[in-house]
Give the backbone structure.
Amino acid sequence: LSKQFVDFCSEVVQQKKQQIEAEYRAKTLDRSKYKFLLDLLILNSLDNDEHGLTDKEITDEFATFLFAGMDTTSFLSSMTTYHIHNKPKMLENIRKEVDVHFKNPSEITTDTLSKLEYLSAVINESLRFTGPGSRTL
């Protein structure tokens, strides 16, 4: 992997770790809001003190997962998740849209997902910004 890619991953890990550690130390951590792989790796490390993953190991896992997902649909999913993850307001808007259209998880089907115009726009913008054809690693 390129140094630039690994440095980017390291920066993302450090930013997320600072956020989670602050809540962890203040005992205000709401684990239900941390569902992403990176979040779970960091939480596992905090929970297991000296037996948890080091920052380098977390970065390596994150970089491997991100790099492995860089293939057409997988790449689009990874980058859309990245954009949503880094823009809390975007995630909030998607959740609100889902709550408006679906009162029960059983209502969510491939056909009914087409009602989610905001989510579709997010995916389309992610494709436009970071589509599989635009990558140069």
